[in-house]
TrEMBL record:
It comes from Moina brachiata. Residues 165-187 form the C3H1-type domain. The gene is EOG090X0770. This is Pre-mRNA-splicing factor RBM22. One of its GO terms (molecular function) is zinc ion binding. One of its GO terms (biological process) is mRNA processing. Its main location: cytoplasm. Residues 233-306 form the RRM domain.
Length: 403
């Protein structure tokens, strides 16, 4: 079966091997040496009710044992995991996948037809070992859907394999304490896709509450609106990790138009992609927002900030600071103090560095400000804002006291 060339590698499990179950990476777990317990015809398939070879395994430390629920034929027909019944490529419920790709399967649901259909399907599967008779190969083919890409899992979700919550503990009645194999936690995980679901509904993609929730979420996915300032042609790219190279980004972003520059800020694990023109930047924003996955990382896409706005905060020149009522006035610039205060001859050099040293960066006060009457010549406390500014306060040397 041809998997699409997207960088999403969630479902790339080798499932041709009949000695091994068809599993999604989440159900398989993170242990590469997982021990499979195989039981020939160990159970009935929950969809077609025929006996099939079951597998049981532990998907990782402190995880619960999992087992296959449906037969391999049924799994192949829908391209789903034998255990969680989620799509193998996207990790999504079949209802979401089929709606997004507009797949209409012709899998028979009545018992008689189903038997016949499954037998035919099995013949086809063994003859070609490719394509899904039920879905005409569309699920794994080249078809792409914006919505699927946005909703798809990019990495396994191992939390789903945790033990179930201890129902006794929830009622305050579990006496097993540490030994209890179940989870002692409040049941706050409504995202558990297996919570109370009819496995057939899930398989056929009907009345699947998780699917409905995902589809609702898809309808309200946030959008990235281009900023009004048309001079902005830069996109911020976040969550790039440590190993992302400029080339990796360029390979994805070049398709939207000419790139002027790509700057990687490794310390913040982000990058800035600047286009030569606005149209290209808008295309790129639309094409990547919420769906660009590189190296299994879903990148965060935002618009860059306006140059004018960025500048305003850092330079005092041209910026206007409104006086906030009720607060002390801004401290005067040291140069002003030198002319009014030090020229009075009443001060010593120590005083200046103690008082105004830390305020070296204060913006230049409005030159016309008649309010900055500090009156330091006679030490009248007219312009004193803070006790520490008062030369007459405790600790000041006696020679600076007014006479
Ligand atoms: Zn089956
Ligand atoms: Zn699974
Ligand atoms: Zn318990």
């Amino acid at each position: 079966m041809a998997l699409s060339k997207s960088s999403n590698t969630y479902g790339r499990t080798a499932w041709e091997d009949a000695e091994f179950p068809i599993l999604c990476p989440t159900c398989l777990g993170d242990n590469p040496y997982v021990r499979m317990m195989k039981e020939k015809y160990g159970s009935e398939c929950k969809v077609c009710v025929r006996p099939f070879t079951t597998f049981r395994w532990c998907p990782g430390a402190r995880m619960r044992f999992k087992k296959t629920e449906i037969c391999q034929t049924c799994a192949k027909l829908k391209n789903v995991c034998q255990t969680c019944l989620l799509d193998l490529e996207y990790g999504l419920p079949t209802q979401v996948r089929d709606q997004a790709l507009n797949i209409k399967d012709n899998i028979a649901k009545s018992d008689v037809n189903k038997e016949y259909y499954i037998q035919n399907a099995e013949k086809q599967l063994s003859a070609t070992d490719s394509g899904l008779p039920g879905t005409s190969g569309t699920a794994g083919g080249k078809m792409q859907s914006d919505m699927l890409v946005k909703l798809a899992r990019t990495t396994p979700y191992y939390k789903r394999n945790l033990p179930h919550i201890c129902s006794f503990w929830v009622k305050g009645e579990c006496k097993r304490g540490e030994e209890c194999p179940y989870r002692h936690e409040k049941p706050t995980d409504p995202d558990d896709p297996l919570a109370d679901q009819n496995i057939k509904d899930r398989y056929y993609g009907t009345n699947d509450p998780v699917a409905e929730k995902l589809l609702r979420r898809a309808a309200t996915l946030p959008r990235l609106d281009p900023p009004e300032d048309k001079s902005i042609t830069t996109l911020y790219v976040g969550n790039i990790g440590e190993k992302m190279l400029e080339k990796d980004l360029r390979d994805h972003f070049y398709q939207y138009g000419e790139i002027r520059s790509i700057t990687i800020v490794s310390r913040q694990q982000c990058a800035f992609v600047t286009y030569s023109n606005r149209a290209a930047a808008e295309l790129a924003g639309e094409g990547t927002f919420n769906k660009l996955v590189i190296q299994n990382r879903r990148l965060v896409i935002r618009w860059g900030k306006s140059q004018a706005k960025q500048g305003a905060g850092t330079t005092a020149e041209g910026a206007h600071y409104e006086a906030v009522p009720g607060l002390p006035k801004a401290l005067p610039h040291p140069s002003e103090l030198e002319s009014s205060y030090y020229n009075s001859g009443a001060a010593n050099a120590d005083y200046s560095s103690q008082q105004f040293g830390p305020y070296g960066a204060i913006p230049n006060a409005d030159a016309s400000g008649a309010s900055y009457n500090y009156g330091f010549s006679n030490f009248a406390p007219v312009g004193i804002h803070y006790p520490s500014q008062d030369p007459t306060r405790l600790g000041a040397t006696s020679k600076t006291k007014p006479t």
